[in-house]
Design a protein that fits this description.
The protein is of the alpha/beta class. Helices cover 38% and strands 23% of the residues. The protein starts with 14 loop residues before the first strand and ends with a helix. The protein binds zinc ion.
Length: 455
């Protein structure tokens, strides 16, 4: 699986040519190229051109033939808590606050450790990678452990340095969270796959002075701010009782809003609030499955897009979804927006794909490096096989990607030009850097521990 070991010996540049039946570069929106090749040099895309020309121009390139496949930008999950894959199905069919306060927080209090986070994140990475996701925007305790797992899996991660006011196994108060997070970032800031954002958990778990500190650090260090926002009606009602204003207004007055601000959910927003988000250049991480499962509501995606806000897609953690499956979220986002707005043209397939790729790259300030297939950008790519009966015939590949295909059709995933996952037809998927035995050990260990706790 390590491509470096088998590149053409007479070709010092280690060129790879991915010959795709279809290529969906992501930009321009809706573009589909047939019989095109992506030429990869080291970590980046060198060229995109018709395959016939590619064979003449790059005769020494090592070829990967994708003759039944569509090649797309690697999917970007804009909001998750990857380690929560260990708590999948632990508590279902409950509203957010009951789910959090009576089930998730007590379980986290009992079990979350560096080992839990590293192992849970690795399991989450395995799921995401096999589903075509190459980059995830995370928020959880022990960010060093998240970093370690992402690097092992070979995935790109933007790691949220989580901040809350109350004590956990990770930190004892907001200042402690902040300092631990910043120290963790210092340890891996030179890693090519990792970046960081400050991640105040939510307006209801973080106080005013902490938000002000976070804004100062974000400005000084050039970091994004990632938080949960306007997820439920209760959150808004409680904020009015406690602070006299809705959470978004409070964050505005604290100086939190700006083009580096990524808000997960945004389910309950007034017209004026949508205009405010747009005016500040903020980004929404839309998590449709999680919002439905916790009965939080349906985010007004159609209105947000019309207001000019950048909307991308996240899965949220596996404890509230319960899948880390960007194909499922793309389809759901497109369908929900149509049903919710009464407009079948709302979030067409190409836009849903953009919400899972370039829009997310934009939200993380990485749109010049990631999110579409263009020369100069990192070669983060996913190949989807359209050979299966349920995907035949095919008149519009983007329609198939969003409405018909699923993560089970993902055949290859590259991150920075390296093949990190591959599933040949009729075989099980193989990871470059994750052994099946390791995943089995992780699931057995936590299955035992959590089962005893739940019993
Ligand atoms: Zn979340």
């Amino acid at each position: 699986m390590n491509q470096n070991s088998k590149h053409h010996s007479s070709n010092s540049l280690a060129l790879h040519a991915l010959e795709a039946r279809w290529l969906v570069p992501g930009l321009p929106l809706g573009a589909v190229l047939e019989q095109h090749s992506v030429i990869v040099e080291e970590k980046r895309i060198l060229d995109i051109l018709p395959t016939q020309q590619a064979r003449q121009r790059y005769p020494l390139a090592q070829t990967v033939v994708l003759d039944n496949h569509v090649l797309i930008p690697g999917l970007i999950n804009l909001h998750t808590h990857a380690a929560m894959s260990l708590m999948r199905g632990l508590a279902d069919d409950l509203p957010l606050m009951q789910w959090l306060q009576q089930h998730i927080w007590p379980a986290e209090k009992r079990f979350v450790s560096e080992r839990f986070v590293r192992q849970g994140t690795l399991l989450g990475c395995a799921e995401m990678l096999a589903g075509g996701t190459t980059y995830f925007n995370d928020m959880y305790f022990f960010p060093n452990a998240v970093a370690e797992a992402a690097v092992q899996a070979g995935m790109r991660a933007n790691i949220g340095l989580v901040v809350m006011e109350f004590a956990t196994a990770y930190a004892h108060d907001a200042e402690d969270y902040l300092q631990k997070g910043l120290q963790a970032r210092d340890e891996w800031r030179d890693s090519a796959l990792l970046s960081a954002s400050l991640a105040p958990h939510a307006p209801y778990t973080v106080g005013n002075s902490t938000f002000e500190n976070i804004v100062t650090y974000a400005e000084q260090l050039g970091l994004n701010i990632h938080t949960h926002l306007h997820e439920t009606r209760t959150e808004i009602e409680d904020s009015i009782k406690q602070y006299g204003v809705r959470p978004l207004q409070r964050l505005e007055s604290l100086g939190v809003l700006g083009p580096n601000f990524v808000a997960a959910h945004g389910v309950h927003l007034s017209k004026a609030e949508m205009a405010l988000l747009s005016a500040h250049g903020c980004h929404i991480a839309h998590c449709p499955a999680s919002n439905l499962k916790l009965a939080s509501g349906i985010a007004p995606v159609d209105a947000l897009l019309k207001a000019g806000t950048n909307v991308a897609i996240g899965t949220d953690g596996a404890a509230s979804n319960n899948r880390q499956d960007m194909f499922a979220e793309m389809r759901l986002a497109a369908l929900l927006s149509k049903g919710n707005s009464g407009d079948a043209a709302s979030v067409p397939a190409a836009e849903a794909l953009a919400m899972a790729t370039i829009n997310a790259a934009k939200a993380l300030g990485k749109e010049s490096e990631l999110g579409s297939l263009e020369p100069g950008k990192y070669a983060d790519m996913t190949a989807v096989s359209l050979a299966a009966a349920e995907l035949q015939p095919c008149f519009n590949v983007i329609s198939h990607l969003v409405y018909s295909a699923g993560r089970e059709h993902v055949s290859h995933v590259w991150v920075a030009g390296e093949l990190k996952y591959q599933k040949l037809q009729g075989q099980v998927g193989v990871y470059a850097n994750i052994e099946p035995a390791e995943l089995k050990e992780i699931s057995t260990e936590w299955q035992t521990k959590l089962s005893q706790y739940l019993a």
